[in-house]
Design a protein that fits this description.
The chain contains five helices and 13 strands. It is an alpha+beta fold and about 260 residues long. The strands form three sheets. Strands 1, 2, 3, 4, 5, 6, 7, 9 and 12 form a nine-stranded mixed sheet that branches. A hairpin with a 6-residue loop joins strand 3 and strand 4. Helix 4 runs parallel beside helix 5. The longest helix is centred in the C-terminal third of the chain and has 33 residues. The N terminus and C terminus are likely disordered.
């Protein structure tokens, strides 16, 4: 399989689409990274709460897909493109599917342990489309611009079984931590507002269907919520710092 078969006109930065990284996170849960996609696959159905393009909402999941698309991607039906990629990658359904233009070797995967149960964050950060919630549409109207490529995708995988309220709290925590880190980054919109994220950010919270006991709450006052927030903040800061260094290098090359 090759990347250009997943999406027509894909922005190839390699030719082979063989797995570059394969990790068994725990029995029955596998993480794989290709040039074209990051996937999580489950031997048995897990549960997910997400804002994903494909399979968003609350329900069972057998695979999670973060599909790489070129910066020039302007698909009119991203859900159909994700379904096509799902078939080509032979992923088990139901699938929760997201998209990113970030190079997938920049995927940040972090593991922590809370009360004897592990939690993983799998995050890709693109800030080319950075915006401020509540001002984005007015900013685009005033500048005559439309959002370009750039999105922040966060997948949180909990080994502990979550009640729906706890899953919702983790989605809130991820969003709060992302917004705080983006504001602190100093990045600004075209009209000078401090940014809080991008206009296409997505989050997926995933947990086992059968485990005991339930986690009732996972807000900011809990150890699980606190650790997930720290994971998200660190991912944002690391990515913004890396892009600042890259931009500085490009400026020096231009000056030279």
């Amino acid at each position: 399989m090759h990347t250009d078969r997943l999406l027509p006109g894909a922005d190839l930065w390699g030719t082979s689409d063989d797995p570059l990284e394969c990790v068994a996170l725990r029995p029955g849960v596998r993480f794989e990274r290709r040039e074209s996609a990051v996937t999580l696959t489950f031997d048995r159905p897990w549960q997910a709460l997400s804002s994903a393009v494909l399979g968003g909402g609350r329900g069972p999941v057998r695979s999670v897909l973060n599909l790489h698309v070129p910066a020039s991607y302007a698909g009119t039906n991203p859900e159909a493109d994700l379904r096509r990629a799902t078939r080509l990658l032979r992923l088990r359904e139901p699938v929760v599917g997201l998209m990113t233009a970030v190079r997938l070797d920049e995927t940040q995967r972090v593991e922590a342990t809370v009360a004897g149960r592990r939690v993983w964050s799998i995050v890709t950060v693109g800030v080319g489309n950075a915006t401020r919630a509540g001002t984005a549409t007015r900013a685009w109207a005033s500048t005559g611009t439309r959002p370009g490529p750039g999105t922040i995708n966060a997948i949180i995988l909990s080994e502990a079984r979550l009640r729906d309220a706890a899953a919702m709290e983790l989605a809130m925590i991820v969003t709060e931590a992302k917004a705080a880190a983006m504001v602190e980054s100093g990045l600004r919109t075209a009209v000078g507002d401090r940014v809080s994220g991008t206009s296409t950010d997505a989050v997926a919270i995933v947990w086992p269907s059968t485990a005991s006991p339930h986690v009732r709450h996972a807000g900011a006052a809990t150890e699980l919520g606190d650790i997930v927030a720290a994971m998200m903040s660190a991912a944002i800061r690391s990515s913004v710092a890396m892009r600042t260094v890259q931009a500085s290098g490009a400026d020096r090359d231009t000056d030279g």
